[in-house]
């Protein structure tokens, strides 16, 4: 005798339990999102049709997705999408999944450069999905920007995101290890979210990060500061006089990064905390002459 078909409500309840056992946060919400991915039926439909029987095809697809999520694969990798700022972006295993904490950089940028009509030139180093550059361009409607990433697949993905968000005419992307292929002295604003996790700490991160996101985008060397030691001195030659840099930092790194900035003759304008009150971004300014 075959396995009895489940109703929509039963399938979601069973998936919620499987996810909860694996300590997935908000397991019922995630179970509903996964059902939407598997069946094409959104949450309002699910609530209205909880007693309907799940088709064999949808049940098979749903079981596979729930198993992958329970094993720690990020929801964004399963859906192929992630929201950032006001944008809906494509994501892949070649890049970090954009996170809400990184939106702190855009908030800081808007505060320090309030003229939304200024024709700024932006540079996003380690662009990944392009989330920082594209969020900035969505706010500064006369600006143009370049995103650089050493991973070709990431640069291609960011370019697709620029097109699908309607920003493709004001963004360009290149394959470059940091600033290696970038001309100096051309940028009003530089944005970056460099790798900052100490190497020995990576294995202790959540499994969805440690096992499913690119190590090259996480690993900041023995103390987490390796990339800042290269990146911050490079900012001086890339920024116009008085130009701004907004850089993401890890927990407890704000003093060390500020020290590196001052040693590179950059002014520390702001150290901005995220919603969890953790210092998350440093705002730096190049000398005016």
TrEMBL record:
Residues 10-80 form the Release factor glutamine methyltransferase N-terminal domain. It comes from Acetobacter estunensis. Methylates the class 1 translation termination release factors RF1/PrfA and RF2/PrfB on the glutamine residue of the universally conserved GGQ motif. Keywords: Methyltransferase, S-adenosyl-L-methionine, Transferase. NCBIfam families: hemK_fam (TIGR00536), RF_mod_PrmC (TIGR03534). Belongs to the protein N5-glutamine methyltransferase family. PrmC subfamily. Residues 109-201 form the Methyltransferase small domain. The keyword Protease does not apply. InterPro entries: DNA_methylase_N6_adenine_CS, HemK-like, N5-glutamine_MTase, PrmC_N, RF_methyltr_PrmC, SAM-dependent_MTases_sf, Small_mtfrase_dom. Substrate binds at residues 193-196. S-adenosyl-L-methionine binds at residues 126-130, 149, 178, 193. Gene3D superfamilies: DNA helicase RuvA subunit, C-terminal domain, Vaccinia Virus protein VP39. It catalyses: L-glutaminyl-[peptide chain release factor] + S-adenosyl-L-methionine = N(5)-methyl-L-glutaminyl-[peptide chain release factor] + S-adenosyl-L-homocysteine + H(+). One of its GO terms (molecular function) is peptide chain release factor N(5)-glutamine methyltransferase activity. Its EC number is 2.1.1.297. GO terms for biological process: methylation. The gene is prmC. This is Release factor glutamine methyltransferase.
